[in-house]
TrEMBL record:
Lineage of source species: Bacteria, Bacillati, Bacillota, Bacilli, Bacillales
A Pfam family recorded for this sequence: Polyketide_cyc
Record's protein name: SRPBCC family protein
InterPro entries associated with the record: COQ10_START, START-like_dom_sf
Residues in Coenzyme Q-binding protein COQ10 START domain copies: 49-117
Highest rank taxon of the organism: Bacteria
Organism: Paenibacillus aestuarii
SUPFAM superfamilies listed in its UniProt record: Bet v1-like (SSF55961)
Length: 154
């Protein structure tokens, strides 16, 4: 299955980075380019272990819904969300936070399977992997910026 790994160094504490990454509100702000919004499950605040959220967004010009559930959580170092229902055949998404000096290394690992069998695998090679990498990178850079801005204020 395709895997995307994104690592960023953030000049902010692990706890702050962890909380921003699991914030429904920050997620919606970081994905404004796809008009993403929470429409079911946890729709604001912090998502917790065992909870789910349904996102509605526009990808590739098509309005879609995706439900993800938090299946693992080790505060403040790691949490995992997995697709319950949505466009992918499935995905597993790990968010890890490692203290490094005065900051945090955030590691985002996204393992997925495209839908539609052979057609999905072709789409993955042609555009899906690049699209998902850019989508996740944009989200992670938003978290980095928010964390560093907030931490600088304190």
């Amino acid at each position: 299955m395709p895997t995307i790994i994104i690592e960023l160094e953030i000049q902010a504490p692990v706890e702050l980075c962890f909380d921003l990454a699991r914030s429904i509100d920050i997620h919606a702000q970081s994905t404004s380019q796809t008009k993403e919004r929470a429409v079911g499950g946890v729709t604001q605040g912090f998502i917790e272990l065992g909870q789910s959220v349904t996102w509605e967004a526009v990808h590739f010009g098509i309005r879609q819904r995706l439900t993800a559930k938090i299946t693992e959580m080790e505060y403040p170092h790691r949490f995992v969300d997995e697709q319950v229902q949505g466009a992918f055949k499935g995905f597993w998404h790990s968010h890890s936070f490692i203290p490094v000096g005065d900051g945090t290394r955030m590691i985002d690992t996204f393992i997925y399977e495209a839908p539609l069998g052979v057609l999905g695998r072709i789409a993955d090679v042609l555009f899906l992997r690049r699209y998902m990498h850019n989508f996740l990178l944009t989200r992670n850079l938003y978290i980095k910026q928010a964390a560093e801005k907030f931490f600088a204020i304190e």
